Amino acid sequence: MKHLIVFSATILLIMSCKSTVIVNHKKLDSIAESYVKLALRLGQYDANYVDAYYGPDEWKPAPTSLENMPPFPYQTFRSEADSLLNLLNHMNIARFDKLWTLRYNFLTKAVASLQTKIEMIHGHHYNYDEEARQLFDVELADMDTIYFRSIIRTLNELLPGDKPLYQRIDEFSSQFNIPADKLEHAFRATLDECRRRTLAHIELPQNERFDLEFVLDKPWSAYNWYKGNYQSLIQVNTTHPISAYGIVSLATHEGYPGHHVNSVLIEKYLYRDCGWVEFCISPLYAPYSVIMEGLANAAIDITFPDNELQLFMKNVLFPIAGLGTSDIERYIEVRHYVEALEFARLNTLRAFSNGDISREQAIDQLQTMALIPLEKTARVLKFSETYGAYSVTYVVGLQLIRDYLKQHGGIDSDSQWQIMSELLSTPRTPSGMSDRLQ
To answer: Where are the domains of the chain?
Structure first.
């Protein structure tokens, strides 16, 4: 019964999408197909651009190494993108229902983002705020250092001492690191628990599954490579030790109910059931990445509300890893406060990317304001240099999702899951996260 309650809104919306397609709006389908094909061709010139694709094989360009690609056809790509956006801007959407309006806004923002990526590959440089706005549909506000300092004061009270605060946090947290020989067991047990909790609220296709790999020397902590047909490859970077909290955070983020579930539901409800082809591709640099990363970051709060995270760690995760349970409450509290400093990290990356501070100054700020250990600052900067302003998707995305859940989700767990499931399975844009569908 709970599945039917949670998905009642989505089922009604899918019925709406099918009945509306029969009547009209074939033009939007045609634009969507052209957008997917253009995005695939653009992806040949940036290996990171197409994060996932599970559409028709015949739409994919012939495999070619970047070294053997012809010169970037800027004028052709720009002309095609301009034409698609012009068609969208001149469409009459007065009779669109809520779901079709969401789809229209999603596609319009996606094409505009693609335009910006064409300009970037052509050589145009955007500052951090411009990338955030034009690639990701995000307006960056000035960030309040007074708020950061209040969190730092609280952490100083939680972990008093003479050493630099980031070092005290790292040393305190290290006692909760999972031993390397217990890591896979602990990760799989956590994913199993997250999947069990997710299935209590969200119905997934019978053949959904994931594979798990451990890798080294990546600019990210973990990555979900969605393969289509409801299957994912989850890779976990073990270059640095992973803590108990880190395992739960990564399992909910990359797996259940985060990226894996999000991608499964989008594929099932929007691509396969509705036949909306723009959802067979997932460009990394696009507005929907903000929604995806926000949902994935919020997943731990939905999956383990109240004191359930502490109970899971104490009763399941710590015994697997052979860890003692003393100070677990303070450990979780410290991790929550440290994560509240993500805007401080973003503030530093923004200034570093714009050339306002040097690398040495960025490293110092990451340690003193974001409380990131020295050995991890290089990975943070490498991520920024590799993926540009992508970090806004994690920080601003989480803020958007939390604000939405607070406004529409009620205070009980079932209500939160119901809103979460709706967000996981419908088209959204950051600038369009103001109203609920119902």
So the answer is: 2-127, 145-432
